[in-house]
Amino acid sequence: MQFWRPGEEFRPDREEILAAGIQKPLLSDHQRVRVLYALEQGKNVIIQGDPGTQTSKVIASHLVAAGWSLDGRCVAVALPRQVAVISSVVHVAEDNSLDESHLGGDHVGFVLESSVKRSSTTKLVYFTNRSLLQTLLKEPLLGSVSVVIVDQFHERSIGADLLLALLKKVQRVRTDLCIIVITAEFTDRICSYLGKARTTQMFIAQRGFPVSIFYTKRPVEDYLQTAMKVIQDAFLQWIRAGQPDSTGVLMFVQGTEEAELFCSTINEWSKTNSEVLRSNGPKESDGSFRKKNGSAQQVLAVSLYSGLDVGQQLSVLSNAVNENCLKVVVSTNIAETTVTVPGISTVIDCGLERVEMFDPRMKTSFISTVQISATSARRRAARAGINQHGSCFRLYTHGHFKSAMAESRPPAVLRCELTEMVLILKAIGVVDVTSFDFLERPDGGLVIDALERLFFLGAISGTGSLTTETGVRICLSSANPRIGKCILVGESYGIGRVMAAVAALLEVRQVLFNTGRSSRSSRALFSVAEGDIITMLNVWRRYVNSSFSDSWCADHGINPAVMQKVRRSFARIVRTNLRLQSKDERFAAARKAIGLSLVECVCRSITAGYFENAAMVEPDGSYLVALPGRRVKIHRQSVLYKRMPKWVTYMDLSQSSTTCEMKDVTVIQPQWLTEYARHLFETVTEKFQS
C-alpha cells in the first residue's frame, strides 16, 4: 500500500500539526496569576488545552498551594474514566513523594464507583464524572468543595454535560463555588452558557513537535492488513535506526474485538517473521544480528481500551515494555483524549470508531461503527509528536478527510439513551426536564422516551415525581435503571445477590471466554437453554466456588482479568444495596414455597427490567420485537444461536448496515410481560399469539 501526501506526485505533501507536549504545559506565571485572580473574583475559567497535557493536574496543584483547599474544603477534579483518575492520582503522589498508604490522606485522594480513598482533610480529590454526580445526589450543594475542575469536557459525554449543568445550578445558591472547564475544543458557547460576565477564557499553548501526515492513495478494503504493512515497515526502520527506546507505534482501531485480534496477529507475526526482517538491519562484525543488551529484538503488541482492568491499562501507560521490543499499542479512541501513551512516534489511524447510539423506534441502545470526525483525526495525529517529530499514517484518502468527515461528533445528549440522566434530574427535584438548562438541549424525543421508560419501570409517578420506594432505590443503586429494576424484582424473589451478579456481569461488558478451540469447548460446558445470562451466571457461580481462582479460569478458557473485574463490580453493587442480604433470607423461603426455581426467578427479574426488548420468533428464524415491530436476529455468539426459542428478551443490539442482532439473550414466557408491564403488553401478546 502506497501512502500519498497531497501536493506532490506519489509523495504526500508535508501537512504538519503541532502536537501536545506532556512534559509540562506552558502555564506561565502570568497565566497562573490570571487563573487565581479570576477565581478570587468569583469567576469561572475556561481553558483550552490539548488532551493528555495534564493541565488539570498542574492547575489543581496551584490551587492547593494558593489555599483553595483550606477550611475543610477540597479542590475536585472530574475526569471521564477511571483509568484517567487513577493515573492522575498516581502522578500527583509521585510528584509529592507519596506512597500508596498516603492516598486518601491530607494531600490527594479519589472517589470512584468501586472504591473511595478520601478523608475530611484531603486537599485534592479526583472523581469520575459519574462518581461526582453520585456525590451531588448525597451532597446537593457540594459544601465540601471549593473549586470543581471539569477536565476533558471536549468528549461531551452525558455525564460531562449533566455535571456542568448541575454545577451551574449549584452556583445560583453557592456563589462561592468556582468552576474550571478544560477542553481541547474552545467554544464561545461554554463561555456564554456560564455567563460571559462571570467567565474568564484562556488558551494555554503547549510544547510539541511537528507530525507529518500520510494518506492512502486510494480507499483501503482491509485496514488491518494495510496497518500490518505499516508496522512491518516501522519495525524495519526501528532496527536500522539502532532500536531507539523512544520509538513506539500507536494504532487506532474501531473496537475492542479488533484490538485483541490485531494484537494476536502482530505478536504471532513477530514470532515467525521478525528474524527475516531483522536480517536487513545492523549486524555485528561476525555477521550475526545486532542485539541490544544481549537480547533479540521483536515486536510486542499490547491492547488498550476502557473495558480492560485499570491495572492492565496503567501497565500499558507506564511504558513498561522490554527495551528490545518495538512497542505497538493497539487502542480504541481511549488513547485519543483520555490517556497519553508514552514513547509514541508513529500513529496509524483507521478513521473509524464505535459509539453508542439510541434508536427511539427500537427503544434500545446499540453500538454502531462510524467514521471519526476531523477533530478526532487531528487529535489522533497529535499523539505522534508528544516527545519527538512523528508520523501519522491515515488509512483513508485526503479527499475523504477533507469532504466526508464532519468537523466534530454530535454530543451524547443528542444521540444516546437519556434514562439515567433523567432519573438523576428527577432525584434532585427537577420538575420539567425538557426545559432544564443544558449547554446543548437534549433531543426532545429522547427525553420523552426516558420519561416513559422510567414511568413503566415504576421509578416515577404519573405526575413525574420520583417514587419513594422504586425510584429512590434505583437511583441510589448506581446501576443502569433497567438493571436497578431487575435487582429490585430479584429482591422480592430472594435472589437480590444473584441479580447483583447479573448486573456486574453486564456492567463489565466483556467476553468472559478466551478465544480458541478449547475455550469454545468450555463455553459449551457452561451453556444452558435458558440463554446467555444464565450461562454467565453458571460461570460466575463456579468461579465463586473455586475461591476466585485464576488457575480455574485458565483451565476453563475464561479470562481471569475479566472475572476479577466482575468480582469488584459485584462487591460495589452489593455494598451500594445494603438490604440485599437480609431480603434474600426473608424472601427465599417464600419463593421456594410457591415452587419457583432460581433460574425462573432470574429470567422473570430480567423480564421486569427489559420488557421493552421482548421478541417472538418468526417462521424464517428471525425475531419480531413486540413493541416497535422490527425484525432482528440472535447474534452468532449467543448460546441460543440456531436454537430459536419462541420468546426472548435481549440486553443489547449489535447493528451493521445489513443486520440487527440481539446480544445477551434470555428465554422468557409471554405471560410474564403482562405480569410486569400490563399497561404495554395486555394486547400485544394476544396479537402475537393469535
Automatic annotation (TrEMBL):
Every Helicase ATP-binding domain range: 36-204
Domain Helicase C-terminal: residue ranges: 223-429
Domain of life: Eukaryota
UniProt-recorded Gene Ontology molecular function terms: helicase activity; RNA binding
Gene3D superfamilies: DEAH helicase family, winged-helix domain, P-loop containing nucleotide triphosphate hydrolases
InterPro entries cross-referenced by the UniProt entry: DEAD-box_helicase_OB_fold, DEAH_win-hel_dom, Helicase-assoc_dom, Helicase_ATP-bd, Helicase_C-like, P-loop_NTPase
Pfam family, one: Helicase_C
The protein, known as: Uncharacterized protein
Species this chain originates from: Chondrus crispus
